[in-house]
Sequence to fold (674 residues):
Amino acid sequence: MKPIISTAGKSTQLRYRRGLPTHTPNHLTASLRYELPHRVYGSKIYPVPAPNGSTIILYGQDTGVGILWRGGRPLKKTAPAPQQPPKPPAKVNGTRNDVIMIDDSDDDEPPKADPQPPPEAEFEDEEEELDPDYPYPSIVQHLRLPLNTEVLHIAVPQLPVVSALRPADSIPPIFSKKIVCTVACADYSILVITLPLSPPSDAAKASPFSAKSPYGAEILRISAHAGHQSIARGITMTWTGRAEPTPSRKELDDDMAEDEDDDTAATPGRQGTGEEGWDLLVASHSAELGGLLKIWRFKLADTTVNVPSPMSAYKTLTLRKPASRVAFSSAQYPRPRHSQLLITDSSGIARIYDPFAPSSRKRRTNGANTGSGNFAALFKTTFDNTKSDSPTPPLLVARKPILDAAWAADGHQIVALLADGEWGVWDVDRSGPSPPSDPASFSLRGFVGTFEKDRSGNGLSSPKSRSSRGSLVPMTPNTRRTKEEVLFHGTSHTSTPYHGGVSIASSPSTDGGASEDSVIIWYGSEVFRIPNLAKFWSRTASASNGASLPAAGPSLVQGLPLLGETITSIEQFKTTAEEAKMATPRDLLTTAEHRLIIFASRTEPLGRDLNAVFAKEQAEEQDGKQADQALLARGELDLGGMDRLLEDMEGSGSGSRSMVLGNSRKVLFASSTA
Fold:
């Protein structure tokens, strides 16, 4: 199938139908759009690549889970089986003496043969050669795992990169052989799914060898009677050791100072149980009973997840309000904070719960939950500033709701997005460059979004509210009316919460220091990027002390072809060491309602003859300027052309440049220095 090519300026779009991608290169980036025939609720990038080098993408859909294997060594193309000639029909009336035998032994049926396992996939010896005009990996295999229900949320474990400091035997072996993910479905169930890490062959995809276990998948179902009585609103997972070490001396001293108790025994989760192995932790939350959180703990074998009998939750917590986000810490085992759970809600409160921490003295005294589990920290958002002439009663004042939050800096920090577009960083252990006086408040904060909002109280403003071309904007009746409304009536305030989220991807530092966190914040239909959170925070702290110029805010990611659909999730692909040194932005996986969008950076070189490339770009730019001047002379230049001419005048910095119409008479705008 040939693509439909449409060009607009310097960007080119290739639109494919029936699930094939759309190619939209724009200078250094391109958008690959995969149109899907069903609704998509979210997607995740599996942290471990397939044996052939493919990146695995999981997404939840109307009927189950979709799996994509992108890049790597492609599958070998097998020749179709030769067709055998049809057998001649048997003669009925002929020279043969046909004997009809009647066998009335209906009970003696031959045993059915066991279904043969599907053939293993074979791959090419080398990865596919990328087209210079299309230098992006293709989809090696696409699989749809049927579950007969909508998959609303999907979670994958966080796994460290195998290195000399982190050998392979310090990670559960199942993660190197199987895809392990957890999904929350519309039928109130929670499913733990294991699937082979290698993509199946086309023959195995065409004929799954078992109806109960299609494509070799094993599904552990937590039904409603053992789980939630309503649809789960979120899910997260991590892994831990079955025989965890006892708490450190510092933890015991802190516990004794708080409890004033001589009982220094380790908690059940952190005491030596004598067993060796790994466990899987799964946490989900729902709105039942005003807010319910359940944590399950399953034993991990080499290739399977063992199911306890009878099945019951490891921990059950009743929350004050329904949670809006639940996420395990980004720290890895065996660090003590690896099991910490972030719980946020719409009332502007964020808590950190550790299921393995010693219970507090008050809870022990009351006799409630004498085992492990305790809240380790609490954070709060600022109050919502509603613009009103009359004072608001204190009982009606509410904190800003939390849309989403994610762990950063190996579990030392939390990045949160609020309903009004404010984002901030909570410093959990106050290790950042500018710890606040109130530990429960933001250490770093800013705003995203395009709407104008009154933020005079905190001195912050929206990025789009500060225009750098105010002196060149023409005064029309429309703009005059808008300025008058803002000047005399102020900006309107809306309490409608926006849709947004936070995505954080960590990578080891190039200089051997702390990990580098790439932050993506999406708010409504806009996406913002912070390439390195630690450097951004340091520059902001230096600017606040007067040591340097103010740091630029999060950069806006432009060119996402959403086509009017709502963003449901954004994930970040892994980056290489060379790309990290060159500060190349990470590729993004954006999930809309009916499409997957991969926002990728161009990886092909500019060419051997750089002078020819630059000369070609300059020639194209000059041709565009001449075309705009010709349209202006004929009076046919549109608003887009006017904007290009104004940008050219502003960028040139020349006081003698102006737009002319047929002769030397200046029209529209002239520079004040002319």
